[in-house]
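hey m, so remember when u said the tokens were messed up on ur end? i reran from scratch. heres the input so u can diff it against urs
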Amino acid sequence: MLPVNLKDLTADHIQDLIDSEVAESVMLEYKQQLPSKQSDEKREFLYDVAAMANAAGGDIVFGIAERPGESNAKTGIADKVLGERWPNIQAEVIRLSSYIRDGIAPRLSGFDLQPISCPDGDALVVRIPSSWNKPHIVTIGGVDRFYRRTGATNNPMTVDEIRRAFSEQGELRENIARWRSHRAELIESGRGPVVMMSGPIAIFHVIPAEAFALRAFSETWRVPDAEKRNVYVPTGNSYQRYNADGFLCHSSLNTVETPPAVWGYSQLFRSGIVEYGFCPSFRHSPYGTTIQLIRGQALECEIVHCFADAYSRLKREGRIGAAYVGFSLIGIQGKRMFINDLFGTGTTHEIVSDTFSSPEIYVDLSEPEEDEPFARTLRPLVDTLWQVAGLEETPFRLDGTWKPFADYR
């Protein structure tokens, strides 16, 4: 795979493949011609795509001629840009995208295509993620076989490989749930990245599926300077530093607490996971009781802000696969969710459990971006939040539409 975000790819990167004599590998393949509309060429293209998706993912680079070996033997080494100009490359992108969407089952998400105009001709890079919905099979041509890329070739998957691919789906969800539970335990016991203010704590996670893939350490991980101040932190991005997990940003310290504590933080993990921690503002009941009320609308709005921050960062980083989103609440036993004086406070119930972790919501990063408040993704999570407090769904709706930022006073 080319070591660059697909949207940042230039002709220089293609030329580097040639100058550096980069050979095909498990994550890189060269093709001279785009597949035609003939069924056999279409099927071979889909075999290549499915094989990479069933393995480690990778790039297929069209428009590259390979260096010939002795007796014209195949070497797999990039030799030159073929020199062909495609008159309507966007039409080709649409055509190949439709092949992938319609010719592979289950449907493959997260793939992308990027045309590059080089001085000596055109190139097209098809980037395929390592799928977390594997194994994928090509559904045209009547050949029911699963392929997986091994080395620089595609090979039929064995029964054991197919069985293992199916089992990985359950393992991924289990690993994510286990990791989130561990993070909640650390934060609840005061061993999180910062000391939090006393009271309820909300944790919001955006987790790329690839974060749980095994990868070799190749270079030092860094956060670009331009990104550091753009990290959203509930209640303010005041302090920043690298730490054992990656890069930490947090709000200013409240020195009234002992030890000094913060209202919110954002932890960027090297794996791509983003964790937001914040203390939902709460107040004592205005009706003379001692029950603390968590401000539900403020909590909804923070969830939207955190997701917007993580989602835009993952997009800028060129991540095109799946991600999982979930939240946890800590220290909520005996509290109620406060709606507002217009709705009244008697509609929610005292929370019995001290912690809660939502199910994870699946997000396809290759789909068109949603507008805030990201109703398709976040509304199920927000409704779950209110079910903890005894309601069926969020009360912050206008004409049936979720409107967390509206004025309900």
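this time it looks ok to me. The first strand starts at residue 28 and ends at 31. if urs says something different then somethings off w ur setup not the seq
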